[in-house]
Write a structure and sequence with these properties.
The protein contains 3 helices and 8 strands. It has about 170 residues and is an alpha+beta fold. The protein has a single domain, classed as Rossmann fold (3-Layer(aba) Sandwich), CATH 3.40.50.150. This is site-specific DNA-methyltransferase (cytosine-N(4)-specific).
Length: about 170
């Protein structure tokens, strides 16, 4: 299997992940944003049950190569069905959550990614966020300090509570 791109830090493969993943060694992190079943040119729109069934196969393939202390970050949006005022929104993270649970994974965070662009709606609020589900097995590694955002007011003291003035 030939990489699409490779350097000392990363290797990228291009293709169907269900064919590529079984060829890979164990990994500590899976980050993905699978198709949302919107009927785009690279996917065929199917029922939500069929979509969830196909996503289960992909999730299982990811779990098969995930280390016992690894993490899966699964980014999904909202599936919209109908037209005009008949539109209904289905949050895909809610549909996929039971699949991850059935595979023994634990949801550690439901992260909201807010962005300022996207399609403009006229019959409902425009979607300006997607959800990243962070799942792990029971045992996992989490290093907060490397990703910590510096405090906005570094010298600020506690104004209330048991440590007031500290």
């Amino acid at each position: 299997m030939k990489p699409y791109y490779q350097d000392e830090w990363v290797t990228i493969y291009h293709g169907d992940c269900r064919e590529i993943l079984p060829e890979l060694p164990e990994v500590d992190l899976v980050v993905t944003s699978p198709p949302y079943n919107l009927g785009k040119s690279y996917e065929q729109k199917v029922s939500l049950d069929e979509y969830a069934s196909e996503q289960r196969k992909t999730i299982e393939a990811c779990c098969d190569i995930l280390s016992s202390t690894g993490s899966i970050c699964w980014q999904v949006g909202t599936y919209i069905v109908g037209k005009g005022k008949a539109k209904e929104a289905f949050p895909l993270d809610i549909i996929l959550y039971p699949i991850f649970k059935s595979l023994g994974l634990i949801l550690r965070n439901r992260i909201v990614w807010h962005f300022g662009h996207g399609l403009h709606e006229t019959v409902r609020f425009s979607g300006r966020h997607e959800t990243i589900l962070w799942f792990t097995p029971n045992s996992y590694v989490f290093n907060l300090d490397p990703v910590r955002v510096p405090q906005k007011y570094p010298g600020k003291k506690a104004y209330k509570g048991p440590n007031e003035g500290e």
